[in-house]
Amino acid sequence: MRDPRYDILFTPVRIGPVTAKNRFFQVPHCNGMGHAMPLAHAAMREVKAEGGWAVVSTEECEIHPSGDLTPYVEARLWDDRDIPALALMCDRVHAHGALAALELTHNGPTASNLYSREVLIGPSHQPSKYGYPSQARAMTRHDIREYRRWHREAAIRGKRAGMDIIYVYAAHDLSLAMHFLQRRRNQRSDEYGGSLENRVRLLREVLEDTRDAVGDTCGVALRFATEELLGANGVEISEARDIVAMLAELPDLWDVNVAAWYNDSIPSRFAAEGAQEPFIDFVKKTTSKPVVGVGRFTSPDTMVAQIRRGVLDMIGAARPSIADPFLPRKIEEGRIEDIRECIGCNICVSGDMTTSPIRCTQNPTMGEEWRRDWHPERIAPKRSPRRVLVVGAGPAGLEAARALGQRGYEVNVAEASTELGGRVTREARLPGLAEWARVRDWRIGQINKLANVGVYLDSMLSAQDVLDFGAEHVVLATGCHWRRDGYGRSHGSAIAGFTDNPRVFTPDDLMDGHLPEGRVVVLDDDGFYLSSVVAELLHKQGCEVTWLTPDDQLAPWSMHTLDYRHIRKRIAELGIGTLVSHAVLDYSDTRLTLENVWNHSRIERECDAVVTITARIPNDALHQALLLRGSEWSDAGIQAVRCIGDAEAPGLIAHAVYAGHRYARELEEPETGEVVFKRHFHTARETDLLAGQSD
Ligand code: ADP
Ligand code: SF4
């Protein structure tokens, strides 16, 4: 039963002509599936509706080919042929009593038009945002009228698709309605430029157009960025206050946040739950219309506090709804401890960034709802009374054990160390990564409820132990360790002077408490988050740190998780030295010889220690030993041995959780044939599917 303290979260909210059944609002979020994978997209949104979200939104939806976002795969409503894909989503969302919302946008100079080959348009002549070697041309008054017409027609198409809420988008530095507000993008001297009133004119007109077009049956929402954190170069909160006052009663709902996306979906390493409050709390005082905002809210107490303190009317969520699509239902049913809390790692964002289906560290079913028929809450019951031995209790082992336990298998987990969680437990102790422990904590919480799962700490298993145990199924999730020899993407062989050098440390050494001192070079051939975390840790310990990479860019993959700018800012603020495009040739005594990767010139550096972050080696010795003793398996009662997660091939925590989940899903299930998951075909067959002629 629901805790009465949370009742307020379940009161309905009117949004113009429609009513949300509760205060949980899945705000628009990208997913890498969009218009290209409409069945997968609809199934993903449906699970959110089933999980209790009163409003389920699309991602950005392009309204015209001149606002084409290729290579990013978003929603699309260029013409009537795009309606069925969104109608499918609406039907699925409505089936669970939720409202469907559509975020219309034309991204002007922040579009690409790589597919449509149209000329980019913007308030004024300006470079395109993402470094494409082309510019946007200044819109004429005719263009502005056309843009308004496209937006209006897209709103009507959205209504025909079944949408209940139509968004006007003026956030994230991504839409013309926002670009006209920004002085740096709008240098016009006509009635659309100059004074604030002029710069707001287009936004006001588009809001009025949308209300006029669909306002009789659809709520009109405005997604608005109150602060760009760019100083006078961007929209500042002082100006945003005036804009909100000018438009206060025009939309039926205000959806407010900070820009750009890297500030809005800020990783947990750089901001806590509810971090946007100081930037958005004025809005509710300025309008009588409901206000929704985000803050990676996972705690119902925080949510209630936001409403009671008059900050928000509705709890907006993208990431918390990805990590746990059933978050509202769990609060409603009084199952707070079952909430799978987002860890703020932004692997979900990397789907959009790499134009691939969204995935989530915490929720391995995200993006698999349609193509694998995976549901975040349901799983097929076990096929047999056979037992499973899970070796290793990192994210892969814990997730395998949890999901196998949910299926009803008798599971035993053996963990060598005296704590659960593997790499998650270790990395969560590093600066800024504490929330990552939620990967472990949620799984332990679930496992503790299952009488059929036994967990044994301090149990380093050998091949003989596994044979003696005699479970029919054995899954090895024994993890990996960091290489010490410098081999990696850039260094194709061991670096001279690294092996057996007590001055060379790995991240494992640091996590074991063995820290270097003095002048330390962090060699990063990994390219993601860890080197910056290690640099920060060592700086805090008083070391003089240089972050070195053979790459041309520091932490390039962190662009995909929106960490990049925050990492660069922090490293710069801490005064940590950086050096790119240099490989290590040799390390002897305290002399490090570096080579410029382009002109091969050499420099020498004095340093007391090197932390090498290049590549990892699977801990697969147990697997290899068991394979060698394959002839003994049947006598021991073993039917199959599998190696998963980092022990198979080191990767992200998300990969390990996924591997554990997939193992559990597929155990003893019949093979599905050649194609392991459903795929989207851009053929007549898909058109038939969308028309509901077959399934
Ligand atoms: P993954 O990310 O694949 O889950 P981790 O490195 O996080 O991998 O976790 C692996 C876990 O396996 C660690 O907690 C480690 O202590 C444990 N482990 C490794 N070898 C053995 C073994 N032979 N017996 C039991 N546990 C083991
Ligand atoms: Fe949260 Fe990470 Fe999942 Fe994104 S991938 S929803 S940030 S846990």
Structural notes for this entry:
There is one protein chain. With 695 residues, the protein is an alpha/beta fold. The chain folds into three domains: 4-353, Aldolase class I (TIM Barrel, Alpha-Beta Barrel), CATH 3.20.20.70; 387-479 and 619-666, NAD(P)-binding Rossmann-like Domain (Rossmann fold, 3-Layer(aba) Sandwich); 483-616, FAD/NAD(P)-binding domain, CATH 3.50.50.60. The protein contains 24 helices and 29 strands. Helix 2 (83-94) crosses helix 3 and helix 3 (141-161) packs parallel to helix 5 (196-214). Bound molecules: adenosine-5'-diphosphate and iron/sulfur cluster (SF4). Adenosine-5'-diphosphate binds at residues 391-397, 414-417, 422-423, 459-461, 477-480, 619, 622, 645-647, 656. Iron/sulfur cluster (SF4) binds at residues 319, 322-323, 342-348, 360-362.
**Major sheet strand order:** 3-4-6-10-11-12-13-14
Report the sheet with the most strands, covering strand number, pairing sense and barrel closure: 8 strands, parallel, barrel
**What is the strand content?**
15-25%
Work out the radius of gyration: 27 Å
Mean pLDDT over the residues: 96
pLDDT below 50 for ≥5 consecutive residues: which ranges? none
CATH superfamily of the largest domain: Aldolase class I
Family: In the N-terminal section; belongs to the NADH:flavin oxidoreductase/NADH oxidase family.
Protein name: Dimethylamine/trimethylamine dehydrogenase
Cofactor: [4Fe-4S] cluster; FMN
Keywords: Flavoprotein, FMN, Iron, Iron-sulfur, Metal-binding, Oxidoreductase
